[in-house]
Design goal:
Length: 228
């Protein structure tokens, strides 16, 4: 498990911390999950209980040069749970709890950090170090914004969900599914930031851990819980 480093980048920390605080205003609890028909697959077989944490850890714990996988998400989850074992992020390690996670690729974090700092880092480790300056609490809240609790939503179901507002594990925070083309399988997620490019589901990174209660889809940018 990686640990968050605390390098002095206070402007970056304040920017996203303020965004998370805005997203939490007036929120009391996680809202209801999507419709129950998203909980089961089209097969009559019961869904398995392999956790997403197991899937994320499958390719090792070190950073690499593949910007299309999820090393930074894996490191962030490990760092949050290392600092706060009782964090709601721990649900990703409990395969008996149904959920859908929309996982930003390593490149997605690279773009976020470049946007916030003005620096285009050349390695995943440096991107993670820059993101780490946001602090444990902020990283935790950003991760929770990418998790839809209580529902196992396949890519096929997402294609039939144009306009659906998904309640996330970050209390009171939602994002919207925008199906641009069912034929070309273009699905966009509209977050709370009105000034930035919204992420798309990434082809070849869909239905990760399919057949289990916890499923994930790769996305091209990091979802933002408030308008920066």
């Amino acid at each position: 498990m990686s640990e968050l480093r605390t390098q002095p980048r206070r402007g970056l920390r304040r920017a996203l911390a303020a965004a998370v605080a805005t997203a939490l205003t007036g929120a009391a609890a996680v809202a209801a999950a999507p419709a129950a028909d998203a909980h089961s697959s089209h097969s009559s077989r019961p869904l398995g209980t392999r956790s997403l944490a197991t899937v994320l850890a499958a390719d090792g714990t070190s950073f690499d040069r593949n910007w299309r996988d999820f090393d930074i998400v894996d490191a962030a989850v490990g760092a949050v749970l290392g600092a706060k074992p009782s964090s709601p992020v721990a649900v990703l390690a409990d395969g008996t709890v149904p959920l859908t996670a929309f996982l930003p690729t390593d490149r997605a974090f690279r773009v976020l950090v470049a946007d916030l700092t003005g620096t285009w880092y050349r390695s995943e480790s440096k991107v993670f170090s820059a993101a780490a300056t946001l602090g444990i609490d902020t990283i935790e809240q950003v991760l929770l914004y990418h998790v839809v609790p209580g529902a196992t939503i396949t890519a096929r179901q997402a294609l039939r969900s144009d306009g659906a507002v998904l309640q996330t594990a970050l209390p009171g925070a939602t994002f919207t599914v925008d199906v641009i083309s069912r034929h070309f399988r273009w699905v966009r997620l509209i977050d709370a930031d009105r000034n930035d490019i919204n992420p798309f589901l990434v082809r070849g990174k869909l239905d990760l851990n399919k057949g289990n209660l916890q499923i994930a889809h790769g996305i091209s940018f990091v979802l933002r819980p408030a308008d920066l």
